[in-house]
Amino acid sequence: MTTLTRTSLLSITPPELFMTETIAKDFRVAIVGGGICGLVGAIGLVRAGIKVDIFEAASKYGEVGAGVGIGPNAVRVLREFGLLDDVESFSPEDPPSVRAFKFILGTGTHDMLYHYPTREDDLGLGVHRASFLDALVKFLDPSVTPTHFNKRCNQISRSNENPLRIILGFSDGTSHETDLVIGADGIRSSVRSMIIQDGSKAEMPTFTNTVAYRGLVSIEKLKLAGVKTELTPSPICWMGDSRHIITFPIKNDHVLNVVAFVTDFSIPMGHLTLPKGEPWVVPVSKEEVVNEYEDWGNDPLTILKSIEQPTKWSLHGLYPPLNSYVKGKVGLIGDAAHAMLPHMGAGAGQGIEDAYVMTRLLAHQQTKASNLEDVLQAYDRIRRPRANAVLLRSKACGDIYEGHGESGPSSRGRETDLQYLWEEVWHHDLDADIQVGIDWLRDEGVFV
Ligand SMILES: Cc1cc2nc3c(=O)[nH]c(=O)nc-3n(C[C@H](O)[C@H](O)[C@H](O)COP(=O)(O)OP(=O)(O)OC[C@H]3O[C@@H](n4cnc5c(N)ncnc54)[C@H](O)[C@@H]3O)c2cc1C
User: Fold this and answer.
1) From 3.40.50.880, 3.30.9.60, 3.90.1640.10, 2.60.40.2250, which CATH number describes the 206-315 domain?
2) From residue 378, how far is each of 78, 197, 320, 391 by CA, in Å?
3) Could you say which of 71, 76, 179, 248 is the most buried, measured as most Cβ atoms within 10 Å of its Cβ?
4) Does pLDDT of 10 surpass 90?
5) What are the pLDDT digits (tens) for 77-101?
6) Pairing of strands 123-128, 236-239
7) Who lines ligand 1 at CB under 6 A?
8) Is 414 a catalytic residue?
């Protein structure tokens, strides 16, 4: 673990949480899904001395080429895992920085309504997803922690020979026996569908009535095209009626990551569905994007016109949130547990927090094969309330940006609703949560 070099809430970690990391465990873990959350989880577990296999449906690691913002809460976790310095060195063009939103009107002359207040140590990351994943992959020695590619999990059952063990089945007909399964297989999680079978369809992600147009643009090109608004270093939320655009710089301020949202507020969320078989992500023409914003001001229109190959994402999420993230010895992390609207830039961060909490609980000196179900219950008790709260808050944030917040669409109304939006997301003490989980395990007689 690297030395802490900056002030961190996690620096108050009780030593008990970490003193166990070298104790050999009598169980193995299988992680289904090698996205950002699965890989952070794998690295954490391996560093805690736990044996891990990763099963990934794709033929190699890969991420769609877009930016992802990682908030100060998740940056602290990366640092605590000893990953931050290496992610930084792998991606030197995107060092951690204080990245508070500027809220600007999308129409007229783009008046600034509010600049979110930050603390000096509110360091966030804005990284290219593929670079981030590449940086993470380098931490896993394939001879110790193999990733099994082309393995799409489609079955989970108990072993007939040893009912304490779990069998994962894959679409190619092969199987794998393990002690604990972590479902990190994203928003369309098969693991989630297999463990939540209560007939409620709660495991199915809902269309959120919001589409997002995404793309990357050269900042130099935008300056040449006459964009006057300062696009760096702060991320910008351009606000309008039922629409908003998020822009933030990546690649050492050379590239602007653009996500332009359009929401249909005329129908309650959950009532609209995409036609069967329609893909959630499709390429679209530049004209389609620009038409949605034709009444907006010069700067956002110029940005949208400059996107070379825009894609349209029909945003889905787990609304309403799940009632449980675990069943038996199977637990969910990341989007599999709480796929949310991206309006707080907090989805991946919550998954990284899941990985941290899961790792610390599994690494505890008293965690063993015989009490894994209880330890997963502790994980669920800690993580579900927090991540589900962020999931609901993400929807509420989008409503504010698009003029549908509690205090209405006026500038003053939006400003009122924007106050301290990120406070609870960024400044949360995860180690205190973990201690609550450990205390619960003691109260239940699982830990002594
Ligand atoms: C428009 C948009 C903008 C966003 N912006 C941000 C942001 O700024 N900040 C932020 O924190 N978050 C953001 N998010 C959310 C963030 O992208 C996700 O929360 C995060 O990528 C989820 O990571 P994950 O590892 O849980 O899932 P994924 O990245 O989806 O990875 C899942 C992996 O599992 C594999 N898999 C799937 N099914 C199976 C199976 N059955 N068997 C084996 N493998 C399987 C997949 O191939 C994939 O590799 C945004 C999301 C969207 C849509």
Assistant:
1) 3.30.9.60
2) 22, 21, 22, 20
3) 76
4) no
5) 999 888 888 777 666 667 778 778 9
6) unpaired
7) 32-38, 55-58, 68-70, 151-153, 184-186, 190, 212, 214, 259, 313, 315, 334-336, 342, 345-349, 351
8) no
